[in-house]
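Handoff note, outgoing to incoming analyst
You'll be picking up this chain. Sequence as last confirmed:
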Amino acid sequence: MIRTILLAALTASTLAACSQNTPEVSVAGVLGYLGNEATAPNQDLRLAQLPNAPSPPQQAGSTRRIAVTRSFILRLPGSEVAAVQERHLTECARLECTVLETRLDQLGDGRVSARASIRVAPERYPALAAIITAPPAEVTTQSERADDRTIAVLDVDKRLEVKMALRDRLTAMLNDPATKSVADLIAIEKELVQAQGDIEAATTQRNYLRTITDTVQVDITYDGRQTVVAGYDFSPIKRAVDSIGGTFATSVASLITFVAATLPWLPVIALLVWGARRVLRRWRTARSTARAA
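Most recent structure output, in case you need it:
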């Protein structure tokens, strides 16, 4: 009995969604609400057998949902990368942007690299772009990518509509004063909880899709270069001066290591030297005696 009621509720909610000129709903997806219940003897009721099934709607009249990403690669002196990035983030806060990612890297050769990824409203993007391209930054690369999310948005909207209709019908069945068994009540409550969970997941996905299509994502890469004076790069001298203390400490550490390694061998070395000198003295004495004879 409960299987027939649940299948009837699913069929009615699907027909209600389809009557509004929405995309077709997969038979497997709708019957999935009932899990193994759909394999019961009453499985003759299938959406695929419904007459006059509507065709998918044309997207010409629907609002397109485009996710736009604009990327900038900036080249500027390495000593100014941190300050420029901080200024950009400050202006971003003033424009009510959303910061997705920031990072600042000190590379081994003295270069500085940074990255920032933010979201901004389309009407505020020109002001942000003017701030990003202002001196001392030099734009070396600028690109734009557009990702059409219209079908994904329509799909999640229709799935959400069907699941909300199912939830309402299951709620009405649960509140129906007609006599039901305990097994029927448990089955309805189980399907109701599943439908509510699907609604929350679909709502989260819909909100994310609306966020990425209602805003512009801006990716900024900061490429910090060493300062060049009169055509010459004096950064090696600067790095050598900055590392004087470290170089001295490394040399002292090497000396200590050498002394610690050779100290146990000093008695052996002294014995070998003494023996060599004794043999040499005897050899000289014997040679002198031979010449005198």
